[in-house]
Amino acid sequence: MTSVERVRTALKKQKPDRVPVLEFVVDFRVARAAMPDCRDAADFMDRAGFDGVCCGAQFAKTRELPDGSYIDEWGVTYAQGPEAVAHPLSGPIRTLADAKAYQPPSPDAPHRLAALLELVQRYKGRRAICFHHRAAFMWSAYLMGIDNILADFLLEPEKVEIVLDKVLKTNIAIIRRAIRAGAAIITLGDDYAHNLGPMMSPKVFEHFLLPRLKKMVEAIHEEGALCIKHSDGNIYPLLEMILSAGPDGINPIEPVAGMDLQTTRHKVGKRVCLVGNIDCAHLLPFGAPAQVRDAVRQAIADAGAEGAFILSSSNSIHSSVRPENFVAMVRACREFGEYTHAKA
Questions:
Q1: Whole-prediction pTM
Q2: Considering only CA atoms, which of 7, 290, 33, 19 is closest in space to residue 125?
Q3: Fold of 3-336
Q4: Which of 2, 26, 153, 273 could crosslink 41 through cysteines, CB 3.0-4.6 Å?
């Protein structure tokens, strides 16, 4: 199988020739340490034998502040840190009037899909082209502040609904453009949980977030692409509702949050492809390659014996991941991931 066929087969809940391996965010410093002559993270993934390459939409800095923080096109202020994903500090929406007046960034800006267009040109047909984005929650949380939006689910629901709908409309438009430009897999990166459980009650999730997640997944499928739903944390209390939205894959099944691959497989069967879950909190930064190899072998045994499994880290390849462990993860997937009875 080609990499494109392999990923698509797994996300269709079937058994490819071997377990695919994907990573959605890779710190370039880790990639360069593992392969000094690589052009960028996508070049590393291609040459290292990953089955896909990935990028996201581009939102420009509109203002740089004296303390080193910056404001982007969403109007959100970020602290620029060591990781590939910057940390949000504050957003522009505080009142109902702010919510009503707010205008999201244009989905049609020429630079919005620049990184994707380059990946399509370089890898279309050879690697699965993945595009990571969001549905409604996390950018709404950035715009309002995470504590504020969680409180306002109960205190000011009208304000929250307005913001969620504006964010969703913008993100659906971006996703449709991305798929038409060549993205085959959309990863939705709204986090709903922390290590102990969801950030909101199941009732709140069902009312505010589930209908909008369904709309996003429906739009992805209407355009002919497949959807992987990402959420950090322990999502077991929300899992059945998330599955009801229709994603093709669930990621990352985070072990430090008590998400276990074998348990999750028993809960979901083959209703969805599992995408995960090699621990990037402790194992990949601090473990040894032999331990990574053992973890990959166990993950494939726990979740991949009958297909419908894609190997990845439990969140991302961040700056603290040891390059040799990153390489060991990919090599071990090749070593243990062959399906001897699968058709090529």
A1: 0.96
A2: 7
A3: TIM Barrel (3.20.20)
A4: 26
